[in-house]
Specification:
Elements (H helix, E strand, L loop, with lengths): L4 H8 L7 E10 L2 E11 L4 E5 L6 H8 L7 E6 L2 E2 L5 H8 L2 E4 L11 H11 L9 H11 L15 H13 L5 E5 L7 H18 L2 E5 L3 H7 L2 E6 L2 E6 L1 H5 L4 H7 L2
Helix pairs in contact: 4-5, 4-6, 6-7, 7-8
The structure holds adenosine-5'-triphosphate (ATP) and magnesium ion (MG).
Length: 258
C-alpha cells in the first residue's frame, strides 16, 4: 500500500534527523485554505517529487520551507531548526544552504548571464565557498553545458537555456537542499528529459536532497525516490512511481492517464 511508505521510509533511515520535517502545516489566504494539515519528512539524499493540480498549493508549500511565506500553524523544521524561531540573519544564513529554482526562471533581464550567476555570491558573502567569482561562475556554467553564454543577456537565450541558467544559479552556493518548482514546464519532451538528466547528474555530483514539483510524469518516474500527492491541503497519498501508477484512486489515476 502506497500510504504505508512514510513509515517504511522512516524505518529505513532510523536514527537520522530529517532534512525537512513538516507537521500539521496550515496556510490559508482568507477563506482559501491551501494547506490544512500537511505532514512530510524528507531525509538526506532523497528526491521527493510533489505533484498535484494547478493552484493546489505546491508553490506555497516550498515558499513556506524557504521562509518566503509564513504558515498559519504547524511545525516546519529545516536542517533541524524550527524556522519560525529564526531571526532575520539566521533565516538568511539558512537560505544559503537551500537552492530554489523558481517556476519562471526568474533571471534578471537587465543583467548578463555572468552577472545573474554572480548575484547570489555577492549577496551571501558570509558563506565561504572555495574559488574566485569567475571560477565559480565558469564552474556553474560548465555544470549545465552553457559556458559560451557567459556574456549573453537572458533575452538572447531559449526557454530551455534559461532553465539551465536558473538551475546553475540556484546551485552556485553549493546548497545541501534544492527546491525545484516545475523545472520542465513549457519545454518540449526532449529538452525536458535533458533537464531531468541534468538535475539528477548534479544531485549525484553535489549529494543534495531535493523537492521537485512537477506535472511531468517522465520526470517523476526518473527522478523520484518518493512521490507525494498534495490534495485538499494534505499529503493525500505517497509512494514510489510504480506504486502510484497502479493506484486505483481516481484522483491519482487521472494524473497518470492524461
Ligand atoms: N500571495 C497570495 N495571496 C493570496 N492567495 C495566494 C497567494 N499566493 C498563492 N495564493 C493562492 O494559493 C493557492 C495555491 O497557490 P500555488 O501557487 O501554491 O499553486 P500551485 O499548486 O503551485 O499551482 P501551479 O501548478 O499552477 O503552479 C492558489 O489558490 C492561489 O491563488
Ligand atoms: Mg506553482
Amino acid at each position: 500500500m502506497a500510504t504505508e511508505l512514510n513509515s517504511a521510509a522512516d524505518q529505513k533511515v532510523t536514527g537520522k534527523e530529517p532534512v525537512i520535517e513538516i507537521g500539521h502545516l496550515k496556510k490559508a489566504f482568507g477563506d482559501n485554505v491551501v494547506l490544512s494539515d500537511f505532514n512530510l519528512k524528507i531525509y538526506e539524499g532523497e528526491n521527493v517529487v510533489v505533484m498535484g493540480k494547478s493552484g493546489i498549493g505546491k508553490t506555497i508549500l516550498i515558499k513556506c520551507i524557504i521562509g518566503l511565506v509564513k504558515p498559519d500553524g504547524g511545525l516546519l523544521k529545516v536542517f533541524g531548526k524550527d524556522i519560525s524561531k529564526l531571526n532575520h540573519q539566521e533565516l538568511d544564513d539558512m537560505r544559503t544552504r537551500i537552492g530554489f529554482v523558481f517556476q519562471s526562471s526568474a533571471l534578471y533581464d537587465s543583467m548578463t548571464v555572468r552577472q545573474n550567476l554572480e548575484f547570489p555570491l555577492r549577496r551571501h558573502r558570509r558563506k565561504k565557498i572555495t574559488g574566485t567569482l569567475d571560477e565559480l561562475v565558469r564552474e556553474a556554467l560548465h555544470n549545465v553545458g552553457l559556458e559560451n553564454t557567459i556574456d549573453l543577456m537572458p533575452s538572447e537565450l531559449s526557454g530551455g537555456m534559461r532553465k539551465r541558467i536558473g538551475i546553475a544559479r540556484s546551485l552556485i552556493l553549493k546548497p545541501e537542499l534544492v527546491l525545484y518548482d516545475e523545472p520542465t514546464t513549457g519545454l518540449d519532451p526532449i529538452t525536458s528529459e535533458e533537464i531531468t538528466r541534468l538535475i539528477m547528474d548534479l544531485q549525484q555530483k553535489y549529494k543534495t536532497t531535493a523537492i521537485i514539483i512537477t506535472h511531468d510524469t517522465v520526470m517523476a518516474r526518473e527522478a523520484a525516490n518518493r512521490i507525494v500527492f498534495l490534495w485538499k491541503g494534505i499529503a493525500y497519498k505517497e509512494g514510489t512511481y510504480d506504486e502510484l501508477i497502479h493506484d486505483q484512486d481516481s484522483e491519482i489515476k487521472h494524473f497518470f492517464t492524461r
